[in-house]
Amino acid sequence: MHIALCAFVVGTLSSCSDKGKTPDEKKRTIVVSTMKVVSEAAGLPGEYIGVIEEEAGADLSFQVAGNVNGVYVSEGTKVKKGQLLAQLDRTSLQSSHDAAQASLKHAQDAYDRMKKLYDKQSLPEIKFVEVETKLQQAKSMAQIAAKNLQDATLTAPFDGVIGKRTIEPGENAVPGKPVFKLLKTNSVHATFSVPEKEIALVNKHNEAEVIMTGINDKRLSGPITEKGVMTSSLSHGYGVKVKLQNPDGTLLPGMVCKVLVDREESTPVIVVPNRALQINSDGSRFVWVVENDKAKAKSVETGELADNGVVVIAGLQAGDEVITDGYQKVSEGMNVQVR
Question: By residue range, what is the domain housing residue 334?
């Protein structure tokens, strides 16, 4: 998260050396106010931008080729498990099925006759094996024809909503090519990315609040169900998912949301006031500290905003004395007096 700093350097930053200063300036003592740095436990709410994703999704396709005879749902249609979605022209498939059944009946009759002769030892075994093999082949062909005929209809494998439709009546269906995207949305996930320096503060199963900005800032809550273990090479962020119940179907895949994550209260952090944080000309951040009654600039790395300032994740340690007022007048090595 980008840190919005409330305090900026007033005037031009002083040089970190005493070059150019008169002896009087070097001896000058500046009165300042300070705070002792402490490492304390803090529950820091992290705010992230996320997107709603379906709980599960499936690409549906025909398993046989054929001409599409009818399409019975459109995008956004809620469907039940087993509901008919689309159907192919069954004419040729029905003919193949009928022919396979006729062949099976013929092979079964021949087998029954030959078996009686074989049982009476009136038929050579090799002839009976041939008849038996033809019967098995006919059964296999009949099963394939029946499966092809069944595959001429496409039904929903689970309750959901049609997210995408790419087929129209009259088109030729290609086996395995998706014609519908079926989404399971009784529950959904708010998916967001957490920077690598913050992922350790996010724990699985913790509750998170999700704000739906497109639905009048509707607020929902749910547990963190997934926490990624691999970072994106582009964003250097880890994927995190919050599960949300969606019985009325108002949360749709693709909706943008805000996610507020409560951090572990046991996480120790260092927080300094916004006004104490300074910016160098190169954009790096630093604070003024008092060491041996002299001012010293310390480079720091910042994290999230907290209720009482900004989290410092590197550069300071407990016990450091940070200048909070009077920093505008100090420079490196200048004598300071703490009021």
Answer: 23-42+268-338
Co-location of 61 and 170 in the same domain: yes
Dihedral Cα 60, 66, 68, 74, nearest 10 deg? 10
Burial class (CB in 10 A: 0-12, 13-18, 19+), 151: middle
For the chain, what is the domain count?
A: 3
CA neighbor of 14 nearest in space, from 335, 337, 326, 330: 330
Q: Residue 310: which CATH number?
A: 2.40.420.20
Query: 0.90 exceeded by the pTM?
Result: no
| Cα 243 from Cα 222, distance rounded (Å) | 5
**333 and 291 assigned to the same domain:** yes
Which pLDDT tens digit goes with each residue over 14-64? 334 444 455 555 568 888 889 888 876 555 567 899 999 999 999 999 999
Task: Single out the residue of 90, 43, 48, 94 nearest to residue 67, CA to CA.
Answer: 90
- Cα–Cα distance for residue pair 312/317, rounded to 1 Å: 9
DSSP string of 154-219?
Answer: EE-SSSEEEEEE---TTPEE-TT-EEEEEEEEEEEEEEEEEETTTGGG--TT-EEEEEETTTTTEE
